[in-house]
Amino acid sequence: MSKYISDFFAKANQNFNLGEKFKAPHSPGSRILPSKTNKNDADYQMRIDAGDMVGTQRNIVLQVNSQAKATPLKEWIKKNKTHGKLATASFDTAAEDPQKEAARVVEELRQKAKENL
């Protein structure tokens, strides 16, 4: 199961500047990455959405896409629906090094997702 989580974050790290993406302004509930297309939703199987801002802290939410193909992810959706939060972490938008802060958030999301899946 952790393979799917690792694959998601490997793709995200390869294709996006996570520090910039997490720091950019987002409305709560909006998608941060990947962009919403049927192809992306199937390929990535998961997504990162923006949560509420509390001061300079933005909640980052990892969710499973309805187009997920992996059996463990499909089973998770059946139990939790597609708006269920697989993992959440808080990103400091005022961090001096957004890349380092993003790496910390990704690791926290990865660990929480493994526990919840």
Radius of gyration: 13 Å
What is the terminal-to-terminal distance?
A: 7 Å
Strand order of the largest sheet: 1-2-3-4
Q: Work out the helix count.
A: 5
Poorly predicted residue ranges: none
The overall pLDDT average reads 94
**Range of helix content:** 40-55%
Biggest sheet details: 4 strands, antiparallel
What is the secondary structure topology, with strand pairs?
Blueprint (H helix, E strand, L loop, with lengths): L1 H14 L2 H6 L7 E3 L4 H7 L1 E9 L2 E8 L6 H10 L6 E6 L5 H19 L1
Antiparallel strand pairs: 1-2, 2-3, 3-4
Helix pairs in contact: 1-5
Task: Note down, in words, how this protein is organized.
Residues 19-39 are annotated as: Disordered. The protein is an alpha+beta fold and 117 residues long. It has one domain (2-116). The protein has five helices and four strands. It has helices at 2-15, 18-23, 38-44, 71-80, 98-116, and strands at residues 31-33, 46-54, 57-64, 87-92. Strands 1-2-3-4 form a four-stranded antiparallel β-sheet. Helix 1 packs antiparallel against helix 5 (98-116). The longest helix is centred in the C-terminal third of the chain and has 19 residues, at 98-116. The N and C termini lie close together (7 Å).
